[in-house]
Amino acid sequence: xxxxxxxxVLLNQAPQTKLFNSKxxxxxxxxxxxxxKQVIKEKLEAMSTQKWxxxxxxxxxxxxxxxxxxxxxxxxxxxPRIEPFxxxxxNPDPMVVKLLASLGIGFDCASKSEIQQVLSVGVEPSRIxxxxxxxxxxxxxxxxxxxxxxxxxxxAEELFKIKKLYPDAxxxxxxxxxxxxxxxxxxxxxxAPLDTINNLLQTAKDLNLNVVGVSFHVGSGCLDENAFAxxxxxxxxxxxxxxALGFKFNILDIGGGxxxxxxxxxxxxxxxxxxxxxxxxAMFPSNIRVIAEPGRxxxxxxxxxxxxxxxxxxxxxxxxETQYMYYVNDGMYGSFNCILFDHQQVQPKVLSRDxxxxxxxxxEDERTFTSSIWGPTCDSIDCLSKEAKLPALDNGDWIYxxxxxxxxxxxxxxxxxxxxxxxxxxxxxx
Length: 430
Ligand SMILES: Cc1ncc(COP(=O)(O)O)c(C=O)c1O
Description:
Elements: H1 4-11, E1 31-32, H2 36-48, E2 60-64, H3 65-78, E3 82-87, H4 94-102, E4 106-109, H5 112-120, E5 128-130, H6 137-145, E6 150-153, H7 156-165, E7 170-174, E8 182-184, H8 194-206, E9 210-215, E10 220-222, H9 226-244, E11 251-253, H10 269-283, E12 289-292, H11 296-299, E13 303-316, E14 322-328, H12 338-341, E15 348-353, E16 356-357, E17 368-374, E18 383-391, E19 398-401, E20 422-426
Parallel strand pairs: 1-20, 2-20, 3-4, 3-12, 4-5, 6-7, 7-9, 9-11, 11-12, 14-17
Antiparallel strand pairs: 2-13, 8-10, 13-14, 13-19, 15-16, 15-19, 17-18
The structure holds pyridoxal-5'-phosphate.
């Protein structure tokens, strides 16, 4: 007898679950209602019954839409005043976008194609912010044609461009904040320094442009909750400059930088919320609309990737100890580009050995070996983990990696002819 997943794989058909009574149907992909582990188990079992199939043993993701929804509920309960606009760039997965669209939240888009994707699932243009301070002219024209009016800027040249292409746009001034404690320091590229703000706003006024508010981004992977409080103070200062020049600002956008759902120590979402919520309430009256652009927060903990050990090399170190080099079938040029671009430290866990599912469980006296894990390409930069302590694995075993939902699949290339890992969906929300 086939499991449901097996049937789905074999016959390309299976029952689908409807998530959260969404207005937008989520039905173009199969969504299971099992635990992530159960889905992985069934996928591996289905593979073992299909050994005759040529396209087997590919790395795959399990995306848990229920985890995305839990993160949404967590946001709503801890930062009720602040409206999330999901940063599509972090994971434009079609099911994630559909789910979040059905929940009624907004979207932060960085390009024409992100705007197109979001509009195509029925999101109204007013629920989009085009949050890229330097935009291609044709993309601005596209935004104008589709009434995506809200967009950011941080320099005078952008204002001249917008004046020509979309003079009625609702502009949001992106200011520079202290991102020195963030893993990705976006301030190197974007954000108007405070001492340029007056001139910039004066230019906008001279051009008769409609500046409606202020935004900032403390940097992605922010490791200091006080960076948010400091940025709110700067934003208040920028509001005051705008008001002094006669603008009627009505929106504050506090950007992204919120941690992944699995972070329970150090800088947690709870800590940030406890600082940023009261700071905003103290400095911005309730008629000011407050939005944010969380990306990683929504998706990182919702995706697990499973990789197959396609090669093993045994080496001996200077102390004559046995070590292993494992080669797996997704890597730095694929989903693990997050190591390079997003400064992530990924954590390998043993999924199966010799056909037996482990899910990271080891016997107490299990011998471990210093192991390095490499992606499948011919490039030596393609190293995922330099010194993991793992039990001895062999070709055909599986390694899984949790918290792989942000800045992974979306930036994966097909370098060396390897295709991007597919996503299987489940919903663990009960
Ligand atoms: C303008 C903007 N908003 C939001 C985000 C999302 O940031 P995070 O994933 O840290 O929440 C980014 C990330 O680069 C960004 O550039």
